[in-house]
Amino acid sequence: MKRILLLGGVTEALAIARTLGPEHVYSLAGIGRVPSDLACQVRVGGYGGADGLAAYIRTEGITLLIDATHPYAAQISQNAATAAHMAGIDCWALRRPAWQPQVGDDWREVDDWAGLIEALAPFKRPLFTLGREPLQHLDEIPPQQFWTLRALDACPGNERCEVIGARGPFQLEDERALFERRQIDVLISKNSGSSATEPKLEVARERGVPVLILKRPRLPEVSRTFSSPIALLQELARG
To answer: Are 57 and 91 in contact (CB under 8 A)?
Structure first.
C-alpha cells in the first residue's frame, strides 16, 4: 500500500490533502493556518534539510513524496528531490503554471532583490506582494518612496511603509480600491500563477501600472510533474 508524504504550501495542496486517508501525511512548514478537518495526518515543521527528510521517509515507511510547495520555495523543492533519491522513492511535483502577460501589460522581469531595487527607483508608491521579504529592507526605503506591503499577517512597518495583513483570494473590486486609495504606481509580485492573487494584475493592466515580476527559480527534475491537482489525483487513482 502507498504511504504518501505531501509537502504543502500552495492552495492546491489542500485539495490533494482532502482526498488522503489516515495512513498518509500532509506536511506544512507552519506558516499560515493549519487545517483541522483532514482525515490524513498533519505534520508541522521542518526536517533538517534533505538528510533529515530522507531519514523521516525511511522511518515512516513513506513510498511516494509529493512536492506541492510554492513555485518560489526552491530550496524545499531541491531537498524533496534529493531526499526522495536518497530514500529510493519517487518524487512527484505539482508545478503551477506561471502567469503569462496579456495585451496591455507592462511586465518587467527582475532576477533578484538588487535588480528589483534598481528597477523600482523611478517610482514613488509601490505595492509589494512578495510576502515578508521586504520587511528586511525597511531601513533602505528611499526618501521619495512610500511602500505598501501586503503579507499574510499584519506586522509593524515604519513611517514610510505600511504593512497590510491579508489572505487571498482577493476580489477585483477590492484590488481596484486598494490601488486607488494608495495611489499605487508600480506593483511588485512573484509569478506565483495563483488565481487567488491574479486580480491585482488585472487592476495593474487597467490602470497602466507597471509590474515588476521576480523571476521564477529553477526547480529540480523529479519523477513526474503535474500542472494541476486533478491530473495528479487521476494518476494516484490509477494506483
So the answer is: no
Q: What is the DSSP letter of 130?
A: S
Based on the fold, state whether residues 69 and 150 are members of the same structural domain: no
Tens-digit pLDDT profile for residues 150-185: 988 888 889 999 999 988 889 999 999 999 999 999
Q: What angle do CA 39, 72, 189 make, to 5 degrees?
A: 115
**Please, is 82 exposed, middle or buried when counting C-beta atoms within 10 Å of its C-beta (0-12, 13-18, 19+)?**
middle
pTM summary value: 0.87
* List of residues 6+ apart from 31 with CB closer than 8 A: 152
Looking at the fold, whether 159 and 178 belong to one and the same domain comes out as: yes
Domain ranges, residue 11? 4-97+217-237
Mean pLDDT of all residues in the chain?
A: 93
Question: Is 102 contained in some domain?
Answer: no
User: Domain total for the chain?
Assistant: 2
pLDDT band at 1 (very low <50, low <70, confident <90, very high): confident
